[in-house]
Target: Thymidine phosphorylase
Amino acid sequence: MKEANESSNVVNLSQRLDPSSGRGGDLLNAVRNISSRRLQQYVGNMFEHVDDALFDLAEKAENNAAQMHYFDGMREVRKRRPVIERAFLALVARELNDFASGTRPAGANTGPSTPAPQPGSVELSLVADNELEESLAITSMIGKNETRLTRDLFAVNQRLSVICGGTRIEDASNPIGPAMLSQAFRQAMRELNADMRVKLIIYKLFDRYVMAALEELYQEVNAELMRAGVLPQLRHEVVRSAGTGAAAGATAATAAGEVPQPLPADDSEASAELLQTLRTLFTARRAHPNVPLSAMTMGPLPTANELIGALSVLQSQAAMVPMPQPAATTTMNTSDIAEQVLQLKEQLMLQLGSLRGQRPGQIATIDEDTIDLVGMLFEFILEDRNLPAQMQVLLARLQIPYLKAAILDRKLFAHRQHPARRLLDGLAEAAKSWSEESDRDGRLHDTVKAIVERLLQEFDDDMSIFDRLSAELQQFQESNRRRAELAEQRVAESTRGREKLEQARRRAAREILNRIGDNVLPPLIHGVLSRAWANYLVLTILRKGEESNEFREALRFVDAFIASTRPVRTPEAKRDLRQLLPGIERALRKGLANVAFQEADIEKLLAQLHGYYRQQLGEPTPASAQPQAAAAAPAPLPIPESIQPIAESAADLEDDSTNDPAEDSIAPDVREQLELVKALKPGTWLEFSGQDEHFERAKLSWISPMSGRYLFVNRRGLKVGDFSPYELALVMAEGRARILASNALFDRAMDAIVDRLSHEEARPGEAP
Model:
């Protein structure tokens, strides 16, 4: 890494301007003009969107009363909009005038009105519910935007401080800062007589269209003051060597004893709120330190460069430790890695002391929060049951590279699309599908291992390595996905084909058994129907469909064939039978040829039938056929072995694809799992465990529209098993299968960290 160029972000007190002087007054007027022009534009744009927002909410309202609140609000806003706009802009102008004239102390933390009491104060407990709700909305909006605008707002504060003679300007006292502007708008909103729900919607729009645009305002103000020579070289970051693509904001300010700035947030509202929540939780956590300050050896705070240097030494040491093979990964390996994750902070402090010759007693608050946050991330990885233990051990080795990345670029925790975050999520997604059975050649394990090794060996301060490794992982995954999809498609088609065949067999059997009814057929006739002709029906259903003419003709043959067995006692009955026989023979020849009967076998069967029908008609049997006729009844049918008999009774037609009991007889724990099973979507991964702690990870590939069975395949697309919904629920209730999370690792980790910090209690040995 190249030597960093740090420019102090503390105001140079030798450069001071008197706000009452001509030059200082001109600069403040310029700030006032820029602010007034832009804020008028922003707030006007906001009010243009109020009607649409309230109308949409009115359409979606849960009842008429709520709908009328929104419609009344629309009318009130239209009527009072000019008054509110004027009041807001007048309050901002007054603040700027007071600031410029010096009638309000520059460092004063007062707004255009008495500020809303802070959460937890005595006053807050006395305000009405609506006032509380409004105060919380304003407080949240201020905190989120102060976090998001850290860099540009810091520069405005410093330059205004120069204009004011070196008096310190903070976020809360900046006349164009989020706090002042939010409070000004809150006071202006007192002109609006509307339901609190309407007001909260307008505050959200103010956040979206005014606060979100402040970055442009601050950049223009900074550019104007820089042109005027006010701190033109001010930096709010440590400038690193080309190619890092990021910087560690606020480090110099922290090292110099300034109040640490919060982590910069993503543009998205959710990310900003998450980081603001984390900042608040870490602040509360620091109120009860693990180690008393008196026990620390005080020293200068380490800079970002020192932290990166110390981490690089630890990283090079970690790179020399051999990676375990999957079969060698045990509970001991996992616990060893977990211990290393917990000890990294202490190791880092020792390494810092070794590099500078004096161990620092403390590190900057923002750096400590980053170290703790990354540590919690990797603790979560080692506890996340969505990852196999073998993969947990591999991914946990990335703690040092990711801590370096987080210090180099604090946007890592704010941006979902940050390259380092995408890489870790991609590795975790690939790891989720891993099992020894599905990775016998070790290609997936070796790919993950190689990426971990390269990060440990190659990552210095060039953040582009995360993009390169993400691309390589994606290419590997894509190649495997195509192969797996082909195998998965074959498995699904095979399963679908078997189900169609089974369904066709049941339909054919049902048609034949319904037509036979209570009739007792001669063995010869029954054998033809239950085997040869049943298979012809199955084939016809599969090829032509159940609504085809061919299928209807095949069923008419069944009726005729059964009718031909009735006793023949009258001349009319004999005549009717003789009329049936040519059609029966033609149909049999056609049907049997379609189900793989050889011509000689067909002739043999027809000869047996001819003998039977002569007996029916009372005709003498030719002498040449007498031996055959005598043996006709016991002789086996010349049916190919490939033709299987169908069901012999209606009971056999009961669907044996599932053995699901009636819903009211299902045990409560199984019923609970059954609800989860019914909500599963194709693409969901489950872990199935067998004997000897063997496990297999499988994806729900297909849900049969015919039987409702769930087909599971492994990452190579090979079938793992199929279950009815009840069978799967039973397996899950017995603890032999569980659903794996479908959301990204980083998102799961952040939720878990927030939950942990929110409920964290002092442990034995810690300060209360």
Observations:
- The mean pLDDT is 79.
- Residues 464-516 form the longest helix (53 residues).
- The longest strand covers residues 695-703.
